[in-house]
Amino acid sequence: MYGYEIVQAIRGETGDVVNLAEGVVYPLLHSLERKGALTSRRAAVNGRSRVYYSLSERGASRLTELATVWSELTQAVQHVLRGPEHARRP
């Protein structure tokens, strides 16, 4: 995907809950590329140059790690939000 396409995908996949400006996404993409998490290729489309980004093997591995941590964190927060078991008894 290219940058604008990524921004639109994030909006769509989150039902517009996460709405990042392109000015936020592009520096992040460049940083991830410098760290080896993404690879990029430039292509001409309708006379314009676009940079397409792909997840590298290193990036895929890191994504798996972060997804596990995020899942554990969200489960813990949900547990706290449910409150103590004794608080739910009549």
- How much helical structure, as a percent, in the residues? 55-70%
End-to-end Cα distance, whole Å, is: 53 Å
Q: Biggest sheet, in brief?
A: 2 strands, antiparallel
Poorly predicted parts: none
Number of domains: 2
* Order of SSEs: HHEEH
Q: Determine the number of helices (DSSP H or I, runs of at least 4 residues).
A: 3
Shape: elongated
Verbal overview:
This protein has 90 residues and is of the alpha+beta class. It has two domains: 1-55, Orthogonal Bundle (Arc Repressor Mutant, subunit A), CATH 1.10.10; 56-90. The protein has helices at residues 3-13, 22-34, 57-82, and strands spanning 38-45, 48-55. Helix 1 packs across helix 2 (22-34). The longest helix has 26 residues, at 57-82. The mean pLDDT is 93.
Helices and strands, with pairings:
Elements: H1 3-13, H2 22-34, E1 38-45, E2 48-55, H3 57-82
Antiparallel strand pairs: 1-2
Helix pairs in contact: 1-2
Main features:
3 helices; 90 residues; alpha+beta; two-stranded antiparallel ribbon; 18% strand; Arc Repressor Mutant, subunit A; elongated; 2 domains
